[in-house]
Amino acid sequence: MEHIRTTKVEQVKLLDRFSTSNKSLTGTLYLTATHLLFIDAHQKETWILHHHIASVEKLALTTSGCPLVIQCKNFRTVHFIVPRERDCHDIYNSLLQLSKQAKYEDLYAFSYNPKQNDAERLRGWELIDLAEEYKRMGVPNSNWQLSDANRDYKICETYPRELYVPRIASKPIIVGSSKFRSKGRFPVLSYYHQSKELNAMANRAAGKGYENEDNYSNIRFQFVGIENIHVMRSSLQKLLEVNGTKGLSVNDFYSGLESSGWLRHIKAVMDAAIFLAKAIAVESASVLVHCSDGWDRTSQVCSLGSLLLDPYYRTIRGFMVLIEKDWISFGHKFSERCGHLDGDPKEVSPVFTQFLECVWHLTEQFPQAFEFNEAFLLQIHEHIHSCQFGNFIGNCQKEREELKLKEKTYSLWPFLLGDQKKYLNPLYSSQSQKSAVLEPNTVSFNFKFWRNMYHQFDRTLHPRQSVFNIIMNLNEQNKQLEKDIKDLESQIKQRKNKQTDGILSKELLNSVRPESPALKATLSLKEQALLPVNDVLRTIEGSSPADNRYSEYADEFSKAEPAVVSLEYGVARMTC
Amino acid sequence: MEFAELIRTGQAQAELLRGPEEPPLRGTLCITGHHLLLSPGPQATPDLWLLLLRNVDSIEKRVAGDSGTITLRCKDLRVLQLDIEGVEATLDIARSIEALSSLESVITSFPFFYRPKGLRLGDAWHFHPPECYYKRVARETNAWRLSEANEDFSLCPSYPRAVIVPRAVDDSALARSARFRQGGRFPVLSYYHAPSGTVLLRAGQPLTGPQKRRCSEDEELLRAVLAGARPGARGFIVDTRSPQAAKQARMSGGGTEPKAAYPGWKRLHRPLERGRPLQESFVRLVEACGDLEQSMDRWLNRLESCRWLSHVKETLSTACLAAQSMEQEGACVLVHGAEGTDSTLLITSLAQLILDPLSRTMAGFQELIEREWVQAGHPFQLRCAHSAFSHARPKHEAPTFLLFLDCVWQLGRQFPLSLEFGEGMLLALFEHAYASPFGTFLCNNEKERCLCEVRTRTHSLWSGLRQPKEQRKLRNPLYVPNPLAIWPSAEPQSLRLWQGLFLRGTHPPEPSEVAWEKVWQIVTDQEKTEGSQPTDSASEPGP
């Protein structure tokens, strides 16, 4: 690779992000064509995909070496100290090049090879079929039809080829409407709600200005003040600055959370989605959603609204369909918003991350309503930035077709489905979903900082034991046991049938009766053996006082006795 | 009964609203000496609704037309609304509740009248006697002994009769050390950490005063502590006040241990909030939690400015520091602030939960509370006289015990498999500390409890909690004994507001309650299927 000068540097230190005493691990840093890899003395590997790198910073030289700080789009922050400045400089330059590609063809997805043949790859791409999805919704029907107006992307470049419009909307109407809307994004069907009383639908369109009420009959306007992409970008920036602070106090954390405005924005998106869902489900109204271009806030609100209305989207497969439909096909500009290529930094914005966060808040409020768990959301977030799969590359369907993504790259979804077990919510109950429409409460208390997203890689901040894992495990064992019981029961049946043929002896039958004393003995033995389920799950990851910051006060214990030691943060003073 | 004169009305028709999720209840409202009752009539289920009047923290009445409304804000943070027919009836009921809920006499309180079926008086009082623990430590270490020097509470009115002290120190030295410590609280053992051979002690502040007085017996006592641990053991004195506050305390007769007088001991200051500021923090948090309309910014601002979570963080990290000094540094630890009955107990009890797997069991946790809070002389009567809604000027109120429960809740969130008890247990302890039919949290110390004959005339909460029907609410279905120390993270990102408690008045129960029910179901399913498996394997005929 032309950008890589140094491939291996030894004696590199990896600093603990939150340590105030510069605790570190020493190891070797490797630079490959796709990843930066750090292997510490315990052979623990830290892999960083070049595409995940949001920024690289070289700090002023210190006595121990040259500090290199890397911020990632998946919110990992690593702080290396490279002994020699020249090595640091080489790596820094390489990473600058490698993390910002100029051409789509240089993205990881075009070289990623999971060892599948063409047929498998194509099947993967066909896994999510939007035509099938519209059929599921109940369109086309007497009111809605498939329009071929955009078959060649002539009316709107950022819409998909296949669009559903009202039957009475003739081609001239569509063309006229598209000329009146920003980027030709005329109103089209996003979700068709089937309910017992009446049918209703949510559409989408682009604005720039808003409709004059006098010209539209039987229509009500609702403005739901969600801020634009620039406000959202700087809000996240502030949030990350706050929670990346060393030695953060509770007060600074909450005042930073407040001034970043992040949770306020999340609540605004959620409120808009609830408004939409209510209008459709309760008032049986049709809703047209738009912002200025109709691919950011509109996508957020339409997809969240659909999620509230339709339990299908709360399943693993349904959620993939939802993302394909409301985000990918309708032209959310993933490559620009995620900064896949070296482009305009002002186009980058965490719009999709906000959507995932809203979904996470819903899973917190409705722990049994979603088939998937938090890990699923985190994994999707990982891959909108990884450029490892083709799904999120490009900014609209037309561009994706031109890039021939389906021929040259793989789809993410079959890989997630193959790993489905990891992403299942053990508490999911599909029966309780019959009543369907979710009505979240958006009182301010319900919005919390999403630690597992923004501190995903800061192990010491997390709970040390996972309830989800253990329940998952119990559930699986229950299933296995139930299956065993069924098998055994059928065996008994078979034997009994044989017995009527005179094959089984009497003693054998007796032993089946539960009063048997021998049986009781097995029962009590069994109970003892029941306890530990899986020791791997019981290990308490990361629970050592050394991992936590209070330990650094104690570092002072072992020092020689000074007269007065004042520690950092001014809270703890130790007089001797 | 002497309450009769305080009851202004016999009964009235009323409708009761109990919160956002629960349906209203209609029926006849009555007042007795200790309770407010609503009887919905013969067909209805549940047939009777009952509120302990002692639970009422504040009362608000409003009349309009020919009916009235009474809003009761309870010490357990629930909010109840009663719509009552008749203006006179409303006013009478309100006055009666006001009078009866503010009675201060201990021996006429409800626990002295409560006689539940299935419990015998005096049954469980010795269920968790601290002496058992002390005897065990004395046996295991050979360096400690049980002393009856405080048999008549003359050395220290807030200590129990039996205390545990270094074997090398005799009772007369204890008496002199007691005179040198605030409230007579001379250093006693709180916990023995067997793996490191170190001990955790607690005391009141030394009364050095402006003249920097010393007490050789007190110094001898702490010297004996180190000598009794492993050779060369060091000690840390964790003072829960700032160095300035500790210095200031000298002016009023208190102070800190001078370094030269206590060789081998090193002092650390970790200031913790206490008293009125802590109570105000609690009041402001509950106030903020009562506002459903506030904007996100306002809510976050109030959550920050009430400082409650800061107190949780400081408490947890101080407890970790104490635990770490013992486990990692092999040092003995003495904790004290001023009186040694509040923040001191917070730290000693939390440090034990972190280090000691036994204290994380159902029985062990009850034993811990009995030993480190009730018997150790936390003044429950004074601290829990009012909760967050009371308009009365706070005098001695402070939610120290609640802060402890919150810290335990945070531990439970970070180690969801390691505590045998669940959130329900912590909520129950909170409720009973403020208003209870049981006698456990009555009075301020053991001496007062003896005078009031609490042990013989009331039932213990611990026997109440042992009732089988309570277990599902109190236990953690996922518990697995964990022999290790559990080190929590005290970073702000790792701490969370205890919604199940602070939002119970305004917010429908967390949906996770439903999910928790499902967890129980999965665990019991597991037990059932596991249990039924042998039936089939036994029935499987051998080859």
Automatic annotation (TrEMBL), chain A:
Q: Which key words are in the record? A: Coiled coil, Hydrolase, Lipid metabolism
Instruction: Give the positions the UniProt entry annotates as the active site.
Output: 291
Highest taxon listed in the record's lineage:
Eukaryota
Q: Which residues does substrate bind?
A: 228-229, 291-297
GO molecular-function terms, A-Z: phosphatidylinositol-3,5-bisphosphate phosphatase activity; phosphatidylinositol-3-phosphate phosphatase activity
Would you kindly state one Gene Ontology biological process term found in this protein's UniProt entry? phosphatidylinositol dephosphorylation
Instruction: List the SUPFAM superfamilies hit by this protein, alphabetically.
Output: (Phosphotyrosine protein) phosphatases II, PH domain-like
Q: Residues in domain Myotubularin phosphatase?
A: 124-454
Pfam family example for this protein? Myotub-related
Decide whether keyword Lipid metabolism is in the record.
yes
Q: Does the keyword field hold Lipid metabolism? A: yes
Query: Per its UniProt record, what InterPro entries does this chain match?
Result: MTMR6_PH-GRAM, Myotubularin, Myotubularin-like_Pase_dom, PH-GRAM_MTMR6-9, PH-like_dom_sf, Prot-tyrosine_phosphatase-like, Tyr_Pase_AS, Tyr_Pase_cat
Which GO cellular component terms are attached?
cytoplasm; nuclear envelope
Q: Which residues form a coiled coil?
A: 464-498
User: Which family does this protein fall into?
Assistant: Belongs to the protein-tyrosine phosphatase family. Non-receptor class myotubularin subfamily.
- Designated name of the protein: Myotubularin related protein 6
Native species: Moschus moschiferus (Siberian musk deer)
TrEMBL record, chain B:
Spell out the residue ranges making up region: Disordered: 242-262
- What's a Pfam family this protein contains? Myotub-related
UniProt cross-references to InterPro entries, sorted A to Z: Myotubularin, Myotubularin-like_Pase_dom, PH-like_dom_sf, Prot-tyrosine_phosphatase-like
**One of the GO BP terms on file:** phosphatidylinositol dephosphorylation
Recorded superkingdom: Eukaryota
Q: Give residue ranges for domain Myotubularin phosphatase.
A: 124-502
In its UniProt entry, what is this protein called? Myotubularin phosphatase domain-containing protein
Name any GO cellular component annotation: cytoplasm
The entry's family comment says: Belongs to the protein-tyrosine phosphatase family. Non-receptor class myotubularin subfamily.
One Gene Ontology term of the molecular function aspect? protein phosphatase binding
- The organism encoding this protein is Moschus moschiferus (Siberian musk deer)
State the coiled-coil residue ranges: none
